[in-house]
Write a structure and sequence with these properties.
alpha+beta; elongated; 5-stranded mixed beta sheet
C-alpha cells in the first residue's frame, strides 16, 4: 500500500521512519516497485496492441463498435496481471535464496587491541549486537560503520533496547556487503560519540 501511495499521512509516517533504518525493508520496497512498474508496462502494451488490431481489422471484417465492453477490459486486466506475475517469477526463479545474516557481538574499545576486535565473515549480511551500558535504555542513537581509512560505508539509527537484569543493548541488521578489512562501528548519542567497537571482516 505504501508503494501504491494508498496510505494516509498518519500511516505513512511510521513506515517512512522504519524505512530510514531498515535496509532489508528498503530492498523489499524496491522489489515491489519493480513488480508494480512491470505490471503497468505489460497492461499498457496489451492495450496498445489491441487498439492497433482494432484499427487494422475492425472496419474490414466487422468486428463491431470500437467501444470496449466490460468483459474485454476484464480480460485485458487479467492478462496484464498474469504477465506481471510471470515476470516476477522469472526475476526470482534463478535467484539464489539469500543466506541468513551472520550474528556478531561487539565489545566497546578505544583502540585496535586484537583481544577486543570481533570477527565476522565478508560479503554477508550481519546482525550486530552490542552492549551499551553507558547509554540509557530508550535513547535514540545514530550509528555508523567506517573502514580503516575513515570512510563511512553504512549509517543507520535505532533505539537502545532494555533487557531484564542485563545491560542495555543495540541490535541492528547491516545488509551492506563488506570486503575483508578492519572496521569501526560507532554509536552517537546526541551527536556525541558514546561507544566505539572494532570489527574485523575476513
Amino acid at each position: 500500500r505504501y508503494s501504491l501511495q494508498q496510505l494516509s499521512e498518519e500511516q505513512m509516517a511510521p513506515v517512512e521512519e522504519h524505512l530510514l533504518i531498515c535496509s532489508l525493508c528498503q530492498l523489499h520496497l524496491n522489489e515491489v516497485d519493480e513488480y508494480i512498474g512491470a505490471t503497468k508496462i505489460a497492461a499498457r502494451q496489451i492495450t496498445e496492441k489491441k487498439a492497433s488490431f482494432r484499427q487494422l481489422t475492425g472496419s474490414k471484417v466487422g468486428l463491431g463498435s470500437a467501444t470496449r465492453r466490460p468483459s474485454q477490459w476484464a480480460l485485458s486486466l487479467t492478462a496484464a496481471i498474469a504477465a506481471g506475475t510471470v515476470l516476477l517469477f522469472m526475476m526470482y526463479a534463478g535467484r539464489p535464496h539469500p543466506a541468513p545474516p551472520s550474528e556478531v557481538t561487539l565489545l566497546a574499545t578505544r583502540g585496535a587491541s586484537p583481544a577486543t576486535v570481533a570477527v565476522a565473515p565478508a560479503h554477508t549480511a550481519l546482525t550486530i549486537k552490542a552492549d551499551a551500558p553507558d547509554i540509557p535504555a530508550g535513547s535514540q542513537v545514530r550509528l555508523e560503520l567506517a573502514d580503516s581509512r575513515g570512510k563511512i560505508v553504512w549509517q543507520g539509527a535505532t533505539l537502545i533496547q532494555r533487557r531484564q537484569s542485563q545491560p542495555s543493548q543495540i541490535t541492528v541488521q547491516i545488509q551492506a556487503t563488506l570486503d575483508a578489512g578492519l572496521y569501526w562501528f560507532r554509536v552517537y548519542e546526541n551527536d556525541r560519540l558514546g561507544q566505539e567497537y572494532g570489527l574485523q571482516i575476513r
